[in-house]
Amino acid sequence: MRKVPPCRRSAFRSLAVAAITASLAVSAVGAAAAAPSPDAGDGYWMLGIDGTVYAFGEAPFCGHDDTFFPYYYAVDLLPFPDNSGYWTLSDNYVQANYCGDAWDFYSKNYESDNFISSLAGDEAVVSMSATPDGSGYWVFTTRGRAIPFGSAQWYGDMSGTTLNGPVLDSVATPSGHGYYMVASDGGIFTFGDARFSGSMGGTRLNQPVMSMAPDPDGRGYWLVASDGGIFTFDTPFYGSMGAVRLNEPISGIVASPTGAGYLMVAMDGGVFTFGDVRFHGSLGASPPQWPVWSIAAMS
Q1: Which of 105, 115, 172, 249 could join 23 via S-S bond, C-beta 3.0 to 4.6 A?
Q2: Rounded Cα gap, residues 271 and 269, in angstroms
Q3: Total number of domains in the chain
Q4: Are 128 and 141 in contact (CB under 8 A)?
């Protein structure tokens, strides 16, 4: 069994623990109101840091990432463009989890493995994003490094810049010709055709920014902090959890395919939907042993 060097294990552990403990003052959840729409996606997946995948609604369950937790940490889940499966990203490899015959196309030519050797000792992998046709993807790190695989192109990154906070999420543009990165201080970094519409960098925040979701029209984005506060940039505000006492901090957000809403997930698996996003269930009433770090919606 391959093991991650202690410095890398402690780097990601510190990142996860810091994100959890930063908002442990937040406690008790309420369900956010949702206005259902048949166009807002029919399901979603959650990913725990131990590699466990949880599927809700019509999202297919295609297996778990074998992370050998706690030697590996799972950090992101990304659906295939046709929703027939998903990639799961651990702190040093990508695994394709497929239902049916999706394997040949989505993993055969560009499945990545063991990029740990190219990272600095205090650098951790945090997210991934794919090209629109699924023929390539990028892996992103806390230092703002973008690592392309398959047909994905490199458009620049922040790895040569000293950041005020680690990059915690990154998302490709709808065209696949660029990507956004968001750091814990709310700083936004855009590359390729990603459009900069503002950021929270330089603003004093109550809690760190954990994740971002671009508007599907490519014109703006939403940021979410660990306390559930939402920051909008050239996008509508549909509500937040910022005024609600949470059991656990928020770890991720994704936009509705229509751009008319979003859903966020807490580390205990609680799901909160806004705008036209359907609620298909959560883990909030029966939290898993290990934190949920990522959520992804069907397109």
Answers
A1: 249
A2: 6
A3: 1
A4: no
- Of the candidates 76, 50, 77, the residue with the CA atom closest to the CA atom of residue 62: 77
Closest C-alpha among 134, 206, 140, 207 to residue 179: 140
- What is the strand order of the sheet 221-225 is part of? 209-214, 221-225, 230-233
Q: What is the pTM of this model?
A: 0.85
Provide the residue range defining the domain that includes 178: 6-297
**CATH number of the structural domain spanning residue 195:** 2.120.10.30
Cβ neighbors of 21 (< 8 A, separation 6 or more) are none
pLDDT in tens, 87-129: 999 887 888 888 866 556 666 545 555 666 778 888 999 999 9
> Could you read off the pLDDT of 119-139 as tens digits, one per residue?
888 899 999 999 999 989 999
Q: What is the length of the chain?
A: 299
From CA 219, how far away is CA 189, in angstroms rounded? Answer: 14
